[in-house]
Amino acid sequence: MNKDFNYSNLKLGIIGGGQLGKIMSQKAKKMGFHVTILDPTFNCPAAQVSDKHIIGGFYDKEKLEQLVQESDVTTFELEHVDTTILKELFDNGHSIAPSPYVMELIQNKYEQKKLLDEKGIPVPAYKDVKTPEDLASFGFPVVQKSKLGGYDGQGVQVLKSQEDANTKAIQAESFIEEMVDIDKELAIIVARNIEGEIKCYPVVEMLFDERVNICDSVMAPANISKEIEEKSIEVSIKAIQALDGVGIFGVELFLTKSGEVQVNEIAPRPHNSGHYTVEACATSQFEQIIRAVTNLPLGSTKLISPAVMINLLGEVGYEGEPFIEGIHDALEIPELSFHFYGKSFTKPFRKMGHVTVLDDDINEALNKANKAKQILKIKGSKEV
């Protein structure tokens, strides 16, 4: 991978044009870089703030090659992408980070879990599903996961009984995990640059909307002991070293009722659990990935203030052109920052924006964030 870049005229390519790509592009533009994004959607969020938009799908070999050829370094805001052409380009000396080989491994959640397990990193007990009988291997309840394509709660099914296994099981290549007795769901953003320098952000706690298993809010820092914090950081660093990854990685962790820390899964890109870093940390995750993939020194991950981030999801019962309800009242809440992604279409549970609230007292930050959540609604132009 090329380590020598002309930073006064650096061309950055981003595969994906959603909200993560948008904020990455904004940070890259602040540093004076030229940004080209690849996304199939006209006027997608990242296209609104980038220099160039190549309209094409993430499995369009020709458009992927065009992006890489036109860029000094290419990175990702999503993992579901064709890696075959990217591996060829990478092997021919093009700078792509994380490498397409890392992306390919992470795309397959079973192979990802297997590698972590082989490297001695604690993960929930798991088993490949080859026959319908395998679903009952651990008894019930059990968690079934698609090997490929899962995202934002998709591709995960909790099977509580043999009847569930007969009627609700995922009909695709999958594996099962034991149902972990979870105390808290934690996450850490880990950055690693080309030189192998590593920095970790604070350990955070994620709370989920159980209707769709989407992360609902994030508390930074997590309310955990120093011992659990150190264990979480150690496990997460080992996981990224095992992958030999370059960039930003969202490491999702389970803290079990017995105090064990296990890796759930890893996202090879900026992560929902790191949105709070824009306002609350010395260097945001979105600037950090730019630094990491262009071989700049990693920025400080110091937490300047406790923070709570709340996702703004499309309201149930609405779709179409989005309308923001309650923005005036929400912005009266002290130390609240409002992010709207600029998506042209809303639907139930679609991530449309987020708010981050700072406060010296994390519980007060949570109260203010929950107040904002009650006020702010993203509705659509038609009821469904």
TrEMBL record:
GO terms for molecular function: 5-(carboxyamino)imidazole ribonucleotide synthase activity; ATP binding; metal ion binding; phosphoribosylaminoimidazole carboxylase activity. This is N5-carboxyaminoimidazole ribonucleotide synthase. ATP binds at K109, K145, E177, E178, M179, V180, E185, N264, E265. Homodimer. It holds the Pfam family ATP-grasp. It comes from the Bacteria. Keywords: ATP-binding, Decarboxylase, Ligase, Lyase, Nucleotide-binding, Purine biosynthesis. Belongs to the PurK/PurT family. The keyword Kinase does not apply. Its EC number is 6.3.4.18. Catalyzes the ATP-dependent conversion of 5-aminoimidazole ribonucleotide (AIR) and HCO(3)(-) to N5-carboxyaminoimidazole ribonucleotide (N5-CAIR). Catalyzes the ATP-dependent conversion of 5-aminoimidazole ribonucleotide (AIR) and HCO(3)- to N5-carboxyaminoimidazole ribonucleotide (N5-CAIR). Pathway: Purine metabolism; IMP biosynthesis via de novo pathway; 5-amino-1-(5-phospho-D-ribosyl)imidazole-4-carboxylate from 5-amino-1-(5-phospho-D-ribosyl)imidazole (N5-CAIR route): step 1/2.
